[in-house]
């Protein structure tokens, strides 16, 4: 394969991967973050006490997280077809990626929020803050570095998942590596795909780490 052809294939596949990661990450975060906030604040004696609902949602989240991604992709094919009209291609791959992202974000967000000092919550309560004010002005504000790292980890995981959906015709870098690098015995294509994936993950991780440091109040005091 000529360098120009390889470059064009990599560019197209990279664009598809970025599209899958961005859309699935955005939708997954918009849905998963509120679920994570609820899980972190709805236990017995917490801001929005609803222990039964908390346990039910927690069980659903755990079940979704424990399902291997490749099995999830196959299991929700009817749902994917209902949403996109097809079960292959970039747009179809976004559906299982998003479904897998929601519980992942929820648990990471819950963990980040639970790291917030309980004393800050009690102080806000003592000053008359409402539960919603505590969530937005205390919990989310203080957990911003942890949430940033959680979303960074989510995007990095999505890059790996997006490569995995290439095995079922999902498009992107994984699909390119399988169709050309594996099925057509082109090791140069496989190597190029791996290098691009490594660079992409490194860029996402470095950006996320930098943002987390910027949001961390302890760093700004030093």
TrEMBL record:
GO cellular component: plasma membrane
Topology of the protein relative to the lipid bilayer: Multi-pass membrane protein
Broad class of the protein's primary localization: membrane
UniProt record, GO biological process: D-methionine transmembrane transport
Protein keywords: Cell membrane, Membrane, Transmembrane, Transmembrane helix, Transport
Membrane spanning stretches: 20-40, 52-76, 88-109, 147-169, 189-212
Subcellular location: Cell membrane
One Pfam family linked to the record: BPD_transp_1
Family, similarity comment: Belongs to the binding-protein-dependent transport system permease family. CysTW subfamily.
Protein name: ABC transporter permease
